[in-house]
Amino acid sequence: MVKYYVVFTISMVLCVSFLTGCDSKYLKTEYVEGVITLDGTPVAGANIGFSPVKGSVGAMDAYGVSDADGVYKLQTNEGKVDGGTTEGEYIVIVSKMEYSDSNVFEVGPDGTKRMIPKADNKLPEKYRRVTKSPLKKTVTKGKNKIDIELTSK
Length: 153
Known about the structure:
12 strands; 153 residues; globular; mainly beta; 12% helix; five-stranded antiparallel sheet; 1 helix; five-stranded mixed sheet
């Protein structure tokens, strides 16, 4: 079930990047890593996305997944491992989806039913969407250590 979310997350980042026209082959990226915590406890398996603040010229999306100790390393939208992202201001989105073995039916725009995996976000919803996330971080030139501290309240 985790593979569905990984594929979805990568697809989402690639689609956004395609639409914004960013290409890290021509942009200098900076290394970014950090620890993600919820109420002071490291979060394993969290999906982290850095999305440029509106108007950030040359900035590009990047994403990562936290390990067992809550450590994440950003990779570029083309999948360059530990590639980081460009300098700039970012809105940070975070989720941790857990999928069940059961599926739910969804009606598509054409009226057809389709089966999708049932998923629950194990982190507060306020961090999941770029339009609502209160998290803003700045990537600077050089190696960046950007910890992400979430609260359940």
